[in-house]
Amino acid sequence: MGCGSDCVDACRSGWGIRCRFPIVEPDYGHTKLRLSKEGLEAIQRINTPIAAVSVIGPYRSGKSFLLNQLLSLSCNKGFGVGHMRDTKTKGIWVWGTPVEIDVDGSKVSVLYLDTEGFESIGKSNVYDDRIFALAAVLSSVLVYNLPETIREADISRLSFAVELAEEFYGRVKGQDVAFEPAKLLWLIQRDFLQGKSVQQMVDEALQRVPNSNGDKYIDEVNQIRDSLAVMGDNSTAFSMPQPHLQRTKLCDMEDQELDPLYVERRDALKQLVASMIKPKLVQGRTLNGKEFVSFLGQILEALNKGEIPSTGSLVEVFNKGILERCLTLYTEKMERVSLPVSVDKLQQVHDLAEDEARKLFDKQHFGLQKLWFSQ
Ligand SMILES: Nc1nc2c(ncn2[C@@H]2O[C@H](COP(=O)(O)OP(=O)(O)OP(=O)(O)O)[C@@H](O)[C@H]2O)c(=O)[nH]1
Ligand SMILES: [Mg+2]
């Protein structure tokens, strides 16, 4: 279902067509991720600052349907929705027309990202973690779509994202904030709350568990909960009732046929998401389409490298690309020297070339400068 092959071909030929593209796809064995060129070429053409909104969550939890609802798209046109096994979302997809909004007087292009669900059969937890980490890293707003209540696995997944954010993007509480972590929106679907507000439920799920016997497992769980406290005000909870009892017919229904309470909450959710969007900042700077794509490429490479990405390796990869650009700049300058040349002149050219390369590095590097000297 969704945009068929003609539509994808049309999308390939230009930006601006209302269509969906993959930006990241699983490799053959469904363990690693690879970039998908078409979607990225389209994103590269965006010149304004970018913000991404991702919907993540378990397999078959209505993520694609929700995104279509947020973008006011029918299932035919929008992201692939389905109850059949072969219609599930694979990798990460983007809606082809960014939504332009105004944030504090500046134009921001918002990309809506649909992700592959967790916990489906035939793939590893590591793969799920990679999808999750990538969405968490790229997004300004992360919508965690849960069909029911919050489970232990959701808590540990989130803590993993927070740890990534803390180590990779800078110390969240410190001064050296290189990267702003995504704002988290817990979206809890269904009508099971039994009098509790969703915020209450999220707060309870995140509370420390008493551990008077010093149980090692409970200790670990509590540590995970502590790391989530970093999210603080960045986490909001929101509930949605079911759109309709006949879940397999949802795609054929107009607004008038859906539960009016659902329609009301969906419209409130649209506004809430819009109010949370801020352009993605890396090292205090916004990213245009090209920068966003290169950032995505670097993170993907790092995530594919390790079983569970060691956050140190992410920083290394990020800096390696920058270092390579600086060394190329240095080499280009040195190659312009025509031989023979005096030692003094050579030293002079070297000093100038090094100075320029170092300035470029200082402008772009991530983390500590010691890397320059250790290479
Ligand atoms: N009951 C109910 N069903 C829903 C809801 N949203 C979507 N569905 C139905 O659930 C099925 C799966 O929906 P999708 O939107 O494809 O779910 P998904 O999370 O994107 O699935 P994957 O991409 O496979 O992870 C479809 O039959 C939808 O019609 C919802 O809020 N409530
Ligand atoms: Mg889907």
Automatic annotation (TrEMBL):
One of its GO terms (molecular function) is GTPase activity. PANTHER family: GUANYLATE BINDING PROTEIN (PTHR10751). Belongs to the TRAFAC class dynamin-like GTPase superfamily. GB1/RHD3 GTPase family. It comes from Brachypodium distachyon (Purple false brome). InterPro entries: G_GB1_RHD3_dom (IPR030386), Guanylate-bd/ATL_C (IPR003191), Guanylate-bd_C_sf (IPR036543), Guanylate-bd_N (IPR015894), P-loop_NTPase (IPR027417). The keyword Hydrolase applies. Residues 47-167 form the GB1/RHD3-type G domain. Keywords: GTP-binding, Hydrolase, Nucleotide-binding. Pfam families: GBP (PF02263), GBP_C (PF02841). It comes from the Eukaryota. This is GB1/RHD3-type G domain-containing protein.
